[in-house]
Amino acid sequence: MDSNFITALIMGCCATISMNLGKGIQKMKVVVWKTWPRVLAPENRNNFLIWCVGMMMTAGAGILFTEALNKTDKSSIIASLNGIGLIALAFFSMSVLKEKVGGREWGAIGLIIIGTAVVQYFNAPNALGQDYEPSSLIVTLGVSIGVFAVMVIGTRILNKGRAFVFAAIAGTFLGLMVILFDIAGVVGGDGMGKYLNFYWLTGFMCGNGAFVFTNMAFFSGSATMVVPTVNSFMIIMPMLFEYLIFGVSLRPIQYAGAAVIVAGVVILTTGAGHLVDDGDAKSGHA
Prior knowledge:
73% of the residues lie in helices and 0% in strands. By secondary structure, it is mainly α. The chain has one domain (3-268).
């Protein structure tokens, strides 16, 4: 592994840890908003400031993701690190929120670590470099919108499956966020150019869209359905999108590793004391 790739992995881990711990901190202090408009009153100020720390951590994750993506040639490599953030959240839940982490959770953590190690260890640099066709991006977005539009209409007709569809849309938005942040680095180069462009801003909006659809999913289903669906689609969709947009694919053993990660995510987030109940993950509310 070269130094750039190792740096990308470190920054990607920091991004997903910041994102998920930020969610945990926001969850811990979200009750402060019930005191609105007195969130800045002396008795509520500390809770509000702690909630703001969580908000800043999720916002900072967007920058860390961008920097990590700028140092690797595969978006899916960074997206697959999402399980590491969930492990960090598990330890946060155990030590701070005093939630139970038992044998089921430890087994899931083991699967995530094994799957992540497989995906990263067998990575090979893209010999052709990283480039994309705008037309491929447009077609991919159009097909994705069409597929999900049909699924949403289907849920209205059948009056079932709404939570899964909304959660899948949220996870897909997160996958698009990662891809668009990656494209932003390709077209923007070094410095602030990778942030001050259409692709990064669109990715940021996709992150906000994920927050909206996640909460829509919560209105229709339980967290044990929504959370693993969001996180799984965040890992899986960049693998599909990068193939369609960049023409890049992973090795078969890496896809197998990704499947192990997804299995670990599902097990970790569907236990009796599931770890999070807001799968939002945007650059500002990841």
